[in-house]
Amino acid sequence: MGAVVSKERRGETAAREASIAPLVALVGADMEKVNALILDMAGSNADMIPEIARHLIDSGGKRLRPMLTIAAARAFGYEGDGHVKLAAAVEFMHTATLLHDDVVDESEMRRGKLAARMLWGNQASVLVGDYLLGQAFRTMVEVGSLDALRVLSEAASVIAEGEVMQLAAAKNLATDETAYLGVINAKTAALFKAACEVGPIVAGRDADTIAALARYGTELGYAFQLVDDALDYGGSSMTLGKKVGDDFREGKVTLPVILANRAGNEADRAFWSRTIERGEIADGDLEHAIELLRRTGAIAATVERARGFGVRAVEALAAVPASAHRDALEDVVAYCVSRVS
Amino acid sequence: MGAVVSKERRGETAAREASIAPLVALVGADMEKVNALILDMAGSNADMIPEIARHLIDSGGKRLRPMLTIAAARAFGYEGDGHVKLAAAVEFMHTATLLHDDVVDESEMRRGKLAARMLWGNQASVLVGDYLLGQAFRTMVEVGSLDALRVLSEAASVIAEGEVMQLAAAKNLATDETAYLGVINAKTAALFKAACEVGPIVAGRDADTIAALARYGTELGYAFQLVDDALDYGGSSMTLGKKVGDDFREGKVTLPVILANRAGNEADRAFWSRTIERGEIADGDLEHAIELLRRTGAIAATVERARGFGVRAVEALAAVPASAHRDALEDVVAYCVSRVS
Q1: Cβ-defined contact of A44 to B163 (cutoff 8 Å)
Q2: Cα(B161)–Cα(B178) distance, integer angstroms
Q3: How many CB atoms lie within 10 A of CB B10?
Q4: Which of these, A186, A157, A222, A213, lies nearest to A149 by C-alpha position?
Q5: Nearest to A306, CA basis, from A338, A331, A262
Q6: Which residues in chain A have their CB less than 8 angstroms from residue B129's CB?
Q7: pLDDT band of B237, cuts 50, 70, 90
Q8: How many Å lie between the alpha carbon of A66 and the closest alpha carbon of chain B?
Q9: Which ipTM did the prediction report?
Q10: Nearest chain A Cα distance for residue B81, angstroms
Q11: Among A47, B88, B166, B243, which residue carries the largest CB count within 10 Å?
Q12: pLDDT-based confidence at B176, cuts 50/70/90?
């Protein structure tokens, strides 16, 4: 396992294994408990709830966020079962967000399968999302840590606020890089942050250590989202589990588009205005968008920014004592950034 | 104030004032704090959030649920500020539910105004509802009572589960009275229960007292919802803040319809099947529905059941020491049931 090989850490991100395999192996036993708890939490006498929950749960998501919670608790020697409950709650918060996002974005696909709303309708997707969020809070309360509850309830608010900000910024090319980073801090980085922060909290660590893990999660979340943005214009649909160009077709103003629009000539800006702002998309437009993104260096610049966040995520891990779990958390950073080149 | 006049209580519901005026007067000072906190919690840099929240908050809802929380804490001599936070959280949970309900039911009106989704869209209504729910949990966590958090997070799950059950039962005349009471227990009584239960919890009372207030809230919630169901076919739109017949037009199977369908002749059942199940509604159908509900005694029977729940709500108050707050809680029962005759 790569996690055991490397002894020196700082500044060696490139040398570490760009894989989540070490993490998956380390947290495997705990994640079995998380998965069992998730199935239990998705139970209900209202048949649609377990049906929809299983549709999402069985759809092959990586479960990166709950794995981070498990690793961030175990890295501090935690031996209780609170981390399993918090991890399951984090995954339910994420799943609830996906259900509502697909309704808001009118998405047809999710992780390579039909979105729940295409099978059960928008109404059921809204209500089952609410149920999963309620179940997430019930499970958190069982852990009995007010600090963990504070972190996760704040994340729930911030995520929703980020989605509202994204909705308001939708189809608006005047969104600048700073505003966009604010959106992804809220809609993505906040849950990565909370998922990591509750690890040292449940393990009873001090405020500085908790802040370090919060920083690791935040930086990783930024890197993860920016890579996702780049992949939407360059990854294969095999990798993504969604069609390439989803963001483009939904008129989402992401960092690649912001950078390409800023660097483009008049004709380019007219193209982005027609497609993203006015939603007038014809055959060949996605290909032209990808060509513009490559010509202006917007994809490369987006990936470069993701790498910067990744470096800072690894730096934050200096607060974590040497262990296989700490190494695995470092590998996650390399993995996230390496998904795109 | 009627609350001070009557000294003897049990079995005297009819003699008590059918008004929430005593409650409003008693909790007025605390409710000013609740209202200030609600405005604070609805703040956000995402402009749509305070706009939508204020649209609902300023729309003249009675704020019955948070008033119950305040009274149920004060009735036990509580002097802290936790009840104000819990009351605001309860109102936010309710407001979030309204936002999502209107999306799910495709409602056009709410409390006599255009529903938020008609002004800001379904997308914003879903996301702002999520934000309000997140803010509710943040506020609850500040109180620091894990017992209150357990009660309210369980309510959040149960409410959503009830909404899913109602969605599944929609337009289905095979729904029987027992199944329907299960739906309203979840979608309405659960929040009344939690709103009342957290009062003695925050006041540090024993399990029996907490259970008694939980029972009071549950029974009151049933009574409240059944009266609402009856009013939808008989109240004036002035009273309701929504058009009479909303449930009918949305194909909602409520207790009046269940009872009328069961007691009706073949032609009646064909009428309910066409209108409620198939949604084929023509001019004059609402008037005919109201006529059938009156002829079969379905409205009277629904109100009679509501009265039964009201009696049990008052019985549960035996666990509360004599006080103006206790009297006001009793008056709420009479008020709820007296909204319809």
Answers
A1: no
A2: 16
A3: 10
A4: A157
A5: A338
A6: 130
A7: very low
A8: 20
A9: 0.92
A10: 18
A11: B88
A12: very high
Residue A114 lies in a domain: yes
d(CA A317, CA A131) in angstroms, rounded, equals 35
Residue A124 has pLDDT above 50, yes or no: yes
B154 to A138: CB separation less than 8 angstroms, yes or no: yes
**Residue at A32 is within a domain:** yes
Q: What is the pLDDT of residue B341?
A: 57
pLDDT at position B243? 66
Residue with tokens 């609410």: A130
- pLDDT at position B57: 80
The per-residue pLDDT of chain A, averaged, comes to: 91
Size of interface A-B (CB pairs under 8 A): 143
Chain A residues within 8 Å of chain B (Cβ atoms): 44-49, 100, 103-104, 122-124, 126-131, 133-135, 137-138, 140-141, 144, 146, 149-150, 153-161, 163-165, 167-168
Distance, CA of B192 to CA of B252 (rounded, Å): 22
Q: For an interface test with B, which of A49, A103, A127 has the most B Cβ atoms less than 10 Å from its Cβ? A: A127
Determine contact, residues B219/B313, Cβ cutoff 8 Å.
yes
Q: How many domains does chain B have?
A: 1
- Return the closest-CA partner of residue A187 out of A148, A226, A144: A226
Contact A30, A79 (CB under 8 A): no
User: Across the interface, do A167 and B44 touch by the CB < 8 Å criterion?
Assistant: no
Which H helix or E strand runs over B160?
A: helix B146-169
| Cα separation, B314 vs B326, whole angstroms | 10
Burial A168-195 (b: 16+ CB within 10 A, else e): bbbbebebeeeebbbbbbbbbbbbbbbb
- Measure CB to CB from residue B164 to each of A127, A153, A157 and give the nearest one: A127
Site of tokens 């008037």: B287
Residues in chain B within 8 Å Cβ distance of A160 = 127-128, 130-131, 133-134
Q: Is the per-residue pLDDT at A267 higher than 60?
A: yes
**How confident is the model over B275-334, as pLDDT tens digits?**
999 999 999 999 999 999 999 999 999 999 999 999 999 999 999 999 999 999 999 999
Q: Is residue B26 part of a domain?
A: yes
Contact status, residue B64 vs residue B55, Cβ threshold 8 Å:
no
pLDDT tops 70 at residue A238: no
Q: Is residue A226 part of a domain?
A: yes
- For position A218, which CATH number holds? 1.10.600.10
Residues in chain A, total: 341
Which domain covers residue B173, as residue numbers? 10-338
